[in-house]
Amino acid sequence: MQGPNPKAATELIRVDGLLDALVRHLRKADDELATEVAWVVVYLSAFSNLATSMLVESGVLQLLVQRLAMSNSLQLLILVRVVVLVQVFIPYILCFILSIWLYMFPLQKPSPGHISLEILYRNIIEVLVKCLNSEHRVLNKEATWVLSNIVAGSVEHKQLIYSSEAVPVLLRLLSTAPFDIRREVAYVLGNLCVSPISPTEGDGKPSLILEHLVSLVGRGCLAGFIDLVNSTDTEAARLGLQFTELVLRGMPNGEGLKLVEKENGIDAMERFQFHKNEELRNMANSLVDKYFGDDYGLDE
């Protein structure tokens, strides 16, 4: 089967014996065969909600996580994508998560919110860190893409990533990785610092998660974002300006202004004064006018 065909995916998952065959082949030690099976799982989970629920109930998710943990090859790439596809359907996998919890911690009584994060994501994050540390550039990029999807979720998702081993690696990649990976890393780190809770503040800006912001800035991430402000890439520059705004607005005691100035952020923003992109021009000019106007530095 080829092409995005939800009807075909739903019909395929209903074929008698298919699920058993997928599970059986994923359990085998043959990585090449397991990878081919995983492509089928990608197709099914991408185009059919019914297929996704049936795959999860059959134990495929557990097998995928096991494969992720054991593999050291580029075959991780496809399996990471599968896990991201199925993790959207948490209502379908809650029973699976509960069974794993009871197996691992038989004397503890989990709450639904706790198990959905601490069990489902913890193992996946360990694998993502493995991908981030890989020498394969493709795995680095795929892992940051997965993390960017996770941190776009709830505050609990953000806290889980923030407290994980992924953050030190992301901070390193922000300054050392190729440009496209740095841009994706910036999205992850930036989203760790803002709350998805509505409504936003009166001026339309997202609410800050101050603990995350102060910690990440204290660990030196601002320079990487200012580098993105200096980029000719529109999306990267937007990410850099957005994070700069968070620093200026949120760092306690006005510390953000000094930090941005120290990293040559004022010069970086002023280059947008006559920029052809209206959105970037307005973002940069408003930040300079608001925080670095004529009165800036007079109190010193």
UniProtKB/TrEMBL annotation:
- One GO BP: protein transport
InterPro entries attached to this UniProt entry: ARM-like (IPR011989), ARM-type_fold (IPR016024), Armadillo (IPR000225)
Gene3D superfamilies for the chain: Leucine-rich Repeat Variant
Q: Has keyword DNA damage?
A: no
- TM segments? 37-64, 76-104
| Pfam families (UniProt xref) | Arm
Keywords in alphabetical order, please. Membrane, Protein transport, Repeat, Transmembrane, Transmembrane helix, Transport
UniProt keyword Metal-binding present: no
Domain of life, per UniProt, equals Eukaryota
PANTHER family to which the protein is assigned, alphabetical: IMPORTIN ALPHA
Family in the record:
Belongs to the importin alpha family.
Q: What is this protein called?
A: Importin subunit alpha
